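Annotated sample (chain length 144).
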Amino acid sequence: METRQDMGQDARQDTRPQERSLGELFSDLTRDMSTLIRQETQLATTEMTQKAARVGKSSGVLVGGGLIFYAGFIALLWAIAYGLTNLFGWPIWLGFLVVAIIVLVIGAIMAWRGYDTLKKTDLVPRQTVETIKEDAQWAKEQTA
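Output written by the structure step:
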């Protein structure tokens, strides 16, 4: 006569990994892939957030350069319109013109630095791409 303990052992033996059905294996693979996709999405989100922060900082420098450039433009207009100052014995308009050019150069340098930093920022989530390749390789090995 078979006892409850014997029947429990038989049931446990039926669920050993090597005797699992194709449906169970496929179910496990689907669940694992779903978890993997969620993790990859989280990784991509984190990586893109970091890159967006860098882009934000570079954009700030670019905007700052643009504002200084605009101030230079206003100074240039003021120098041309009023021509009221005399610097180093030059005519009044020439003094304001020199100041305006200096401000424009500073603004252009700042804007160029911001642009250059933005241009060098790699927006591709490299780490995520690499792990996705590894995951694809893993999935191939699981189905083989």
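Annotation: The first helix runs from residue 4 to 14.
Annotation: The chain has a mean pLDDT of 79.
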